[in-house]
Design a protein that fits this description.
By secondary structure, the chain is of the alpha/beta class. Helices cover 37% and strands 15% of the residues.
């Protein structure tokens, strides 16, 4: 491919095909388009794939995080430790629960919280920790889960990007107190919008299903399926966070694609690593010693040795027909959290300033990768 690409290379593309189209159409033809039997099946199949006992489908990962906090009694006056280096929904969910986010710094290599960065900001008011498997990069599940148990607070895992990632030989959802997942189109698998909670606690799953549906003691699906009148009761103030059967129908097809999509992304990432080797100042994300990422995002850090700043790299790529993106945002630098005075977050600020996300998706070709890396080498003067 020449340096002037004949088409624009997208940074991300969802893998959606005829099977998803047919599944959605079948759901529509069935007449059951709200939360129903396909949602229940999707919950079972997704939970099994990520190594969890129970799944509770919801409208987004943000609502999943909110419900996880409600489940654990987090509310006004409480603090929740979160990374600032995350999409702003992580901090927003804490505010939705009435609590205050406390921003912790992250590890330079993984972009994730560590026991040490959490300890630096934890206080007696800390009622929970939300740790993010950032961009699909698994955090050290063994270390953080053990530490959280010692602190006596729940570790809520924001696994929005992590479907198909592994830590210590298991899917990242295995062994978690509760995990929240996203099916936004930028994720490895998608339902358009939508989310999921997975957990081991059966009673907790029952309450989460009630919380997502106005606090009803019997679901709308069960009421309609009954041959006798059912008089529901509303046991607590709750929410409308339901997923539709149309979304779940698409999700069931996508779950079947997950292993293949992750394998394809890892193969493309391995090729990026080969092509980028030897370019000083360009540091790509790599697997941690304890696990494997699904490479939901292939991000690179642009260090001073590269010779060109991150923003100029983004511009140069765009001029050459490549849609890249800035790296993960830092919530504490956004106007929404300008009132928060966090502890120093030097690694967070370095990563959000100096990192970018390169294209990686099922439709990316080797010729695309060759073009992208050629542009990067030219920008670096190599």
């Amino acid at each position: 491919m020449s340096e002037t690409s004949p088409r624009r290379i997208q940074v991300m593309l969802p893998m959606l095909g005829e099977e998803e189209e047919q599944a959605a159409a079948a759901a529509i033809r069935s007449g059951w388009v709200a939360q129903g039997p396909r949602v229940a099946q999707f919950e079972r199949e997704f939970a099994a794939v990520v190594g969890a006992d129970h799944g509770v489908a919801v409208s987004s990962c943000t609502t999943a995080l909110h419900l996880a906090l409600v489940l654990h009694g987090v509310g006004p006056g409480d603090e929740v430790v979160v990374p600032s280096l995350s999409f702003i929904a992580t901090a927003n969910a804490v505010r939705h629960a009435g609590a205050e986010p406390v921003f912790a710094d992250v590890d330079l290599a993984t972009g994730n919280l560590t026991v040490e960065t959490i300890e630096a900001v934890r206080t007696p008011r800390t009622r929970a920790v939300i740790a993010v498997h950032q961009g699909g990069m698994p955090f050290d599940t063994a270390a953080l889960r053990t530490a959280a148990a010692g602190w006596g607070v729940p570790l809520i895992e924001d696994a929005a990007c992590a479907a198909g990632s592994r830590a210590y030989g298991r899917p990242v959802g295995a062994g978690a107190t509760v995990s929240a997942w996203s099916f936004h189109p930028r994720k490895v698998i998608t339902t358009g919008e939508g989310g999921m909670l997975t957990l081991a606690d059966a009673d907790g799953a029952v309450r989460l299903r009630r919380l997502r549906e106005h606090g009803m003691n019997v679901s709308a699906a069960d009421r309609h399926a009954s041959s006798q009148p059912v008089l529901e009761a509303y046991l607590e103030p709750a929410f409308n966070y339901r997923m539709t059967d149309i979304q779940a129908a698409v999700g069931l097809v996508q779950v079947g694609r997950l292993a293949g999509l992750v394998a394809g992304r890892r193969a493309l990432a391995a090729r990026y690593h080969e092509l980028l080797a030897g370019i000083d100042g360009l540091v790509p994300v790599v697997d941690p010693a304890y696990g494997e990422t699904n490479f939901q995002s292939f991000w690179v850090r642009v260090d001073p040795e590269f010779g060109v700043g991150r923003d100029d790299v983004l511009t140069g790529l765009s001029d050459a027909g490549v849609s890249a993106r800035r790296g993960i945002m830092a919530a504490h630098l956004e106007p929404a959290y300008a009132h928060v005075a966090p502890a120093p977050l030097p690694v967070t600020e370095r990563l959000t300033r100096d990192s970018l996300i390169l294209p990686l998706h099922h439709a990316l070709t080797e010729a695309d990768q060759d073009h992208i890396v050629a542009v990067l080498r030219k920008l670096a003067g190599r």
